[in-house]
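Example for tutorial group B:
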C-alpha cells in the first residue's frame, strides 16, 4: 500500500471510528447494552465493507487504470448490496438491537463516504507523470534541427 493510500485509509477510518463511538454511546443510552453492541457491530461492518472497497479500488487503479471509473461504480453498488444483505441477515436477531445496528451502519457509511470524498479532494496526487530528472540531464539543451 502506497503512502497516499494509507493516508486515505486513515483519513476515512478515524472519523468513522469516532462516529462509531458516538453511535455506541447513543445506542447504550437509548437501548441499553444491546443497543451499544448493535451500534458497534454496525460500525464494524460498515468500516470493513468500505475499507475492503477502498483496497479493491486502489488495486484496480494500479492494475487496470482504464477500468477505474467503471470499477468505482460497480464497487459502490456492490458495497450497497453487501450492506443490504447484512441488514437482511440480521433483521430478526436477538443478539443486539437491530435499530441501533442499522442506524450505526448507515451513519458509518455516510461518514466514511464524506471522509473519503474530502481525502481525495485534499490529496495532491499527480495525474500526469513529470519527466524524470535523468531524462532531462541526458537530453541536449537545444533541439537538433
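The residue assignment follows.
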Amino acid at each position: 500500500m502506497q503512502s497516499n493510500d494509507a493516508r486515505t485509509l486513515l483519513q476515512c477510518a478515524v472519523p468513522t471510528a469516532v462516529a462509531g463511538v458516538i453511535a455506541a454511546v447513543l445506542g447504550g443510552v437509548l437501548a441499553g447494552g444491546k443497543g451499544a453492541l448493535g451500534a458497534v457491530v454496525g460500525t464494524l461492518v460498515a468500516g470493513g465493507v468500505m475499507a475492503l472497497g477502498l483496497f479493491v479500488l486502489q488495486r484496480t487503479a494500479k492494475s487496470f487504470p482504464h477500468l477505474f471509473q467503471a470499477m468505482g461504480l460497480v464497487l459502490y453498488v456492490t458495497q450497497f448490496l453487501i450492506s443490504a444483505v447484512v441488514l437482511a441477515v440480521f433483521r430478526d436477531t436477538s443478539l443486539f438491537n437491530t435499530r441501533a445496528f442499522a442506524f450505526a451502519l448507515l451513519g458509518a457509511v455516510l461518514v466514511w463516504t464524506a471522509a473519503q470524498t474530502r481525502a481525495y479532494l485534499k490529496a495532491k496526487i499527480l495525474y500526469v507523470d513529470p519527466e524524470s530528472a535523468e531524462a532531462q540531464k541526458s537530453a541536449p539543451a537545444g533541439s537538433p534541427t
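Residues 3-63 form the longest helix (61 residues). Compare this with the pattern of hydrophobic and polar residues in the output above.
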